[in-house]
UniProtKB/TrEMBL annotation:
Pfam families: GAF. This is Acetoin dehydrogenase operon transcriptional activator AcoR. Gene3D superfamilies: 3.30.450.40. Residues 105-219 form the GAF domain. InterPro entries: GAF, GAF-like_dom_sf.
Length: 434
C-alpha cells in the first residue's frame, strides 16, 4: 500500500527543498554559472531573482537586510504613507488571527522599506534576528530573493519557500506577498506580506493575502470619495496631540458628527498617549504600567485609565491586546523628531514649544523628555547659528545652559550688546553656582 497522500506530499516537499538548498550552495559558491539554473529544478522566477541578487552584490551570509536610509525618518514615513489609513483593516483581516499562529504580517513601502511588522510575538522576535523589523530595507537589491522584495521588483504576487531565499539566514522562513496599488493611478504603493513556516506559502495563504490587498485598495478608493478634500493619505482630519511646553496637554480630533473637538488631557492620559504614539507596535498592560511607574502602578489601574481615556478621545482610536493606536496621529513631539532626522534644525526649533510634559513623573516620559531636549540642544549648538542659539537660550531649559551662553558670548561681536548680555548672564550663573 502506498503512503497516504499528505505524508507523500510532505516528503516530496522536503526533498524539493533539499534539492533547492543544494543548488543554492553550488550557485553562491560559484561552482555553477547563471545559465545552469535554466536546466535546474528551480522555479524560473526564483532563478531570475537569484541572478539579480548575485549581480547586485547581495551577500548570502549577511545577518539580515541592510538598514534603510529611511530608518531615521520612519515615524514620519509611517504617518504619511498612503497605506497608513488601511492599517486597521489589515490588522482586522490578517494580524488579529496571526497573534497565536506562529506567523507575522508585514507592510512595506514601494522601495522595500518595512513599515510595520506585527503578529505572533515569538515569530516577531525571531524575525528581529534577521533584521526583519520596521525601518529595514527588504528590497531585492539589498536583501536578495525574498517574497516582499521580489514581489515589489516584479510588481506581482509571489511566494518564496524556505531554500528559495537568497540569504541563508532567511531560509527557515516561507512567505507570501502581494503588491498594493493606488486605486486611482495604479502606482505601486507597497506590499502586504505574511511570513512564517511552510504553511505561510500555501495557495490558501496567498489567496488570503490577495483578498486583503484587494480590500485595502477598495478601502483607499472609498476614502477618496468620502474624504472632504478628496485625499486618501489620512492627513485630513487626523487627530492632533500637543504635549510640548508648559500648557496642559491637548487632544484635538474630529468626532462622529464631523465636528472638530479639543480635549484637555489629564497628566496620566497624556503620558499614555505619548507612549502609545512612540510605540506603534503596541504595549501590553504590564509594559505600560512599568513605563508609567516602575514601582507603584498595577495592571488593574492601567486598564481603568485606558477605559477612561477611551471615553475622552474616542473608543475607536485605541485597540487592546496590546494597546495601540489604530489611526495615525500628528503630534508636536513627532514633528520635532522628524525635523531633526531630516536635518532641518530651524524647523525643529520652531516646533519645539518647550520640554515634553514637564510635570510628568513617568520614568519613560522623563527619558524621552531628556532625549528630546538634548537632541534639540545638540543640533542647535552644532549649527553655530547665533540666532538659533539665542532662541534656544530664551527657552526655560536654556536659561541655565552655561555652555550655551558661553558659546553665544564667544560668537557675539566684541563690544556688542549681545556679548555684554551673555557675559552678564554667565556671571549670574556663576554666582548662583557659587
Amino acid at each position: 500500500m502506498g503512503a497516504p497522500k499528505t505524508i507523500s506530499s510532505r516528503a516530496s516537499a522536503r526533498a524539493g527543498s533539499s534539492a533547492v538548498r543544494a543548488l543554492h550552495e553550488l550557485f553562491v559558491a560559484g561552482h555553477v554559472d547563471a545559465s545552469y539554473l535554466d536546466s535546474a529544478p528551480i522555479r524560473p522566477v526564483v532563478a531570475e531573482s537569484w541572478r539579480r541578487s548575485l549581480a547586485t552584490g547581495v551577500d548570502p551570509d549577511r545577518d539580515g537586510a541592510l538598514c534603510s536610509a529611511m530608518t531615521l525618518s520612519l515615524a514620519r514615513m509611517r504617518e504619511t504613507h498612503p497605506l497608513a489609513p488601511a492599517l486597521p483593516l489589515i490588522r482586522r483581516l490578517l494580524v488579529d488571527d496571526a497573534v497565536d499562529s506562529g506567523v507575522l504580517v508585514a507592510v512595506t513601502a514601494a522601495d522595500g522599506t518595512v513599515l510595520w511588522v506585527e503578529g505572533d510575538r515569538k515569530a516577531v522576535r525571531k524575525a528581529e534576528a534577521m533584521d526583519f523589523v520596521p525601518g529595514a530595507d527588504w528590497s531585492e537589491r539589498n536583501a536578495g530573493t525574498n517574497a516582499p522584495g521580489t514581489a515589489l521588483a516584479l510588481d506581482r504576487e509571489l511566494q518564496i519557500r524556505s531554500s528559495e531565499h537568497f540569504s541563508r539566514i532567511v531560509q527557515p522562513w516561507s512567505c507570501s506577498a502581494v503588491p498594493v496599488h493606488d486605486p486611482t493611478t495604479g502606482v505601486l504603493l507597497g506590499c502586504i506580506d505574511l511570513t512564517g513556516g511552510a504553511d505561510a506559502a500555501t495557495p490558501q495563504t496567498l489567496a488570503l493575502v490577495r483578498a486583503t490587498a484587494v480590500a485595502v485598495e477598495n478601502h483607499l478608493a472609498l476614502l477618496r470619495v468620502t474624504e472632504p478634500d478628496g485625499r486618501a493619505d489620512g492627513a485630513a482630519g487626523r487627530a492632533q496631540l500637543r504635549v510640548l511646553g508648559a500648557r496642559r496637554a491637548r487632544w484635538q480630533f474630529t468626532d462622529q458628527n464631523g465636528s472638530l473637538r479639543t480635549a484637555t488631557l489629564t497628566p496620566r492620559h497624556a503620558d499614555i498617549l505619548v507612549l502609545l504614539h512612540r510605540h506603534p507596535e503596541g504595549l501590553t498592560a504590564d509594559h505600560l504600567a512599568l513605563l508609567l511607574d516602575d514601582k507603584e502602578l498595577d495592571v488593574v489601574t492601567v486598564r481603568a485609565e485606558m477605559s477612561r481615556l477611551r471615553r475622552v478621545i474616542d473608543p475607536a482610536v485605541v485597540l487592546s491586546r496590546p494597546y495601540r493606536l489604530l489611526q495615525p496621529v500628528d503630534s508636536d513631539l513627532g514633528s520635532v523628531f522628524s525635523h531633526l532626522h531630516a536635518g532641518d534644525v530651524e524647523a525643529a526649533l520652531n516646533s519645539y514649544a518647550g520640554s515634553l510634559l514637564p510635570q510628568s513623573m513617568s520614568p519613560a516620559i522623563g527619558r524621552l523628555r531628556a532625549e528630546l531636549s538634548a537632541s534639540v540642544r545638540g543640533a542647535v549648538m552644532a549649527t553655530g547659528d547665533v540666532s538659533l542659539l539665542r532662541r534656544w537660550l530664551e527657552l526655560p531649559e536654556g536659561r541655565d545652559d552655561r555652555d550655551g551662553w558661553r558659546l553665544l558670548h564667544d560668537r557675539a561681536q566684541v563690544g556688542s550688546v549681545g556679548r555684554a548680555q551673555a557675559r552678564g548672564h554667565l556671571l549670574g550663573l556663576d554666582l548662583d553656582l557659587g
